[in-house]
């Protein structure tokens, strides 16, 4: 079986009923890998695909919202964003400024501005549920793809949480 959608085209299911779509999307001067997945195509509604398409089309606004949420957590010394920034400061010391795209003197703000949006995974079967509908993966362009921040979005595009995946 397959699902047809104006944005995604024909989404064929695998032998197990799962669907998968992947594309590289330009965001400024970077390329972001966008994946859409669902373990069972029966759990994917046309509304979910419409929302997924709007998130991809509005990736710049989604990215901006995610970064604002990260900034909002900087004042909380126990937040995962703060812990992530402290780990970077400890790992790179004075060399951290060489990795930043803009140096204002506020390391937290500069790190968040310098994070690269590496991927967005859309979990199309989670539309309207309590679990994340989309996950944005951010990291510094250091070659260490293991130390990243994940921003979880609901199907309404709202940020549900920001977690570290170190």
What characteristic shape results from the CA principal axes? Answer: elongated
Main sheet properties: 6 strands, mixed
Structural class: alpha+beta
Point out poorly predicted stretches.
none
Order of helices and strands: EEEEHHHHHEEEE
Percent helix, as a range, is 25-40%
Radius of gyration: 17 Å
DSSP helix count? 5
Spatial separation of the terminal alpha carbons: 38 Å
User: Whole-number average pLDDT?
Assistant: 90
Number of strands: 8
Q: What order do the strands of the largest sheet run in, or round the barrel if closed?
A: 3-4-5-6-7-8
How many discrete structural domains?
1
Strand content: 25-35%
Show the helix and strand layout.
Layout: E1 2-5, E2 9-12, E3 19-27, E4 30-38, H1 46-57, H2 59-73, H3 80-92, H4 96-99, H5 107-114, E5 116-123, E6 134-139, E7 149-153, E8 159-164
Note the main attributes of this structure.
166 residues; alpha+beta; 6-stranded mixed β-sheet; two-stranded antiparallel sheet
Describe the structure.
The protein has 166 residues and is an alpha+beta fold. It has one domain (2-164). 31% of the residues lie in helices and 31% in strands. It has 5 helices and 8 strands; from the N terminus they run ββββαααααββββ. The chain has helices at residues 46-57, 59-73, 80-92, 96-99, 107-114; strands spanning 2-5, 9-12, 19-27, 30-38, 116-123, 134-139, 149-153, 159-164. The strands form 2 sheets. It has a 6-stranded mixed beta sheet with strand order 3-4-5-6-7-8, covered by helices on one side. A two-stranded antiparallel sheet has the order 1-2.
